[in-house]
Every structure is written in structure tokens, then in C-alpha cells.
Amino acid sequence: MREIVIKENEAGQRFDKFLKKYLSEATGGFLYKMLRKKNIVLNGKKATGNEKLNCGDKVKFFLADETIDKFSGKEKASAEYETLPKTSLSVLYEDDHVLIFNKPAGLLSQKSKADDVSVVEYLIQYLLKTGSLKQEDLITFKPSICNRLDRNTSGLITAGKSLAGLQKLGELFKDRTVKKYYLCIVKGRLDKRQYISGYLYKDEKTNTVSVQKDRLSEEELPIETEYEPLAWNGETTLLKVHLITGRTHQIRAHLASIGHPLIGDTKYGNEKINRQYRTKYHLKWQLLHAYDLVFPKLAPPFEALSKRQVTAPVPKEFYQIIKETEWEHGTQEALEVLH
Fold it and tell me: HEC profile for the chain?
């Protein structure tokens, strides 16, 4: 016999949905049969599976440990996170519910195919190593990220360590109450703060987007971007970008649509200037970095994150380019704060 106690991350769901996660390799027919025969009981009583779980509820399995381990996929769940390639992913903020990483360029935010390695796998590996998460917790709850960055974009990634953290971060990003700022270097000179808007259409087949000033169809989504030049010369500009909406490739496509593509961007950029930077700096990625997050006032249990500003230092290669560029305008103080 095995007994488990329902935790906060598992409460609020139907009993049968919980069982399908806990015994993920078992069929629905097997689970309902075990309920009918009282081989699986809830709080010492026969259950139908329709019950809503509460924190502290007790589930008893009158099954052999070998059977439970087989149907829970325990061995399969643990192996995935034991050995991952080394990465420069670093933790910038952590509390009981939320974790914020500085993602290096070249790392996926989430898997696109089964054998990919992404921030999510490193998140879970970190939580297992620090003891914030146990292997058995993964059977019914999987921590995840709450915002995405393109593979070749570096910077701030937020993640929920708990169900409450996941839900709160999801709510904040959906309501746009978190202010998101990026740094990028673009082709051409921009010397004034500007707010730009338009409509973005995504081509799923090519994974590219296009931007128009006017809406031509319902498939096009409104986008809003604001930028502030920090330093510039006749050829390039260092921008601080306020991402107001946050669509696929928004900053890259939006700036390219007004004639100022990101340097290093092979999808929307300018090949001539990209080639110059590849030759001089061996640049592999677009110069785009999720730099700053500013959170709104938050009530408990998120008071530690309330009104907090989290900043991610720019990658070494990006900072080298900023330092070595001969800017015509832009104070040294503004450049130093980026390090």
C-alpha cells in the first residue's frame, strides 16, 4: 500500500485527472476499475473520480510498489534531467514561487521536438539539485517558463516554481502589467524616442512574420513597440526597446519594417552589415537582449516580487561591440550601466 498527501500544486483539480497524471502509463479503464474495487481510495472512502481535490487530502493505493512505479513512469521521468550539456544559464531572482533566468543566445526557451534541450529542462534540473523539487513531484506537476524568447535572443526568462507562481506570472504577462525592456543594435541612425504601431501577420509554414500599418485581415494582430536611442552614429544605433504587446518576432520585424533591422538577424536583417559583423566580431546571433523586467505592486504571497526590477547583464560579446563602437552621441554613463 502507498499513501500520498495532496499538495498545493495538485489541489483544485478533479481526482481522475490527478490519477491520470500520477499513473500516466495506465489506461483510463484500469484507473476506473481500481476506483470501483477500492484499490484506490480518497480520504479512506470509495471515490468516483469526479471529486475536487483539496490540499491535505489523502490518496491510498492498494497496489504493489512495482505496479505503481511501472504505471507512474518514474524511471522515465528521472532520467531526462540527470545529464544536460553545460550552459551559461544563470539565476537572477528566486523565491518560493518564481524563478528568473538570464538565458544565453542559442538556447531554446521550450522544446520544439522531443530530443531538444531547452530552458525548461535546465529549470527542472536546477530545482531537483537545490531540493525545491523532488522526482515524485514531477509525476503530477511540472514547473515551466512563462515567457518565451527566440532561440537566438538572450536575456530574461521567467518561470513558475509552483502552480501559484505559474498562474500569477501568466496573468501578469497576459494583462501586460509587467514592463519588458530589450536592448538591441540596429542598422541606421535613430536619434529620437518613438512609439510605433502596426499589425503583424504570421506565416506558420515559414515561421516568419510581416508587418503592415493597416489591418488587412482578422489574422493580423495589433502590435505596439516603443524605443529610446541610447547611443548612435551614422551607421548604427543602440536602442532600449519597450515591448508593449509581445508577438512572435515583434521587435525584429517591427524595426525591420521601418528600415532599421537588427544587426545579426539573418531572417529580417541586412546581409551586408551582418557580414561585416560576422567578419569583425564572429557574431553568431542577432544583437537582441531581454534586458529589464519591472513588476507591478503585488499582494501576498508575491510580495517579494512586488515593484521589483530585475535586470540581466548583456552577454560578453554584445557588450564588447557596444564598447568598441565609436558612438557619435550617447554618454559613457549610459553605456557603463549596461555591463
Answer: CEEEECCCCCCCCEHHHHHHHHCCCCCHHHHHHHHHCCCEEECCECCCCCCECCCCCEEEECCCHHHHHHHHCHHHHHHCCCCCCCCCCEEEEECCCEEEEEECCCCECCCCCCCCCEHHHHHHHHHHHHCCCCHHHHHCCCCEECCCCCCCCEEEEEEECCHHHHHHHHHHHHHCCCEEEEEEEEECCCCCCEEEEEEEEEECCCCEEEEECCCCCCCCEEEEEEEEEEEECCCEEEEEEEECCCCCCHHHHHHHHCCCCECCCCCCCCHHHHHHHHHHHCCCCCCEEEEEEECCCCCCCCHHHCCCEEECCCCHHHHHHHHHCCCCECCHHHHHCCC
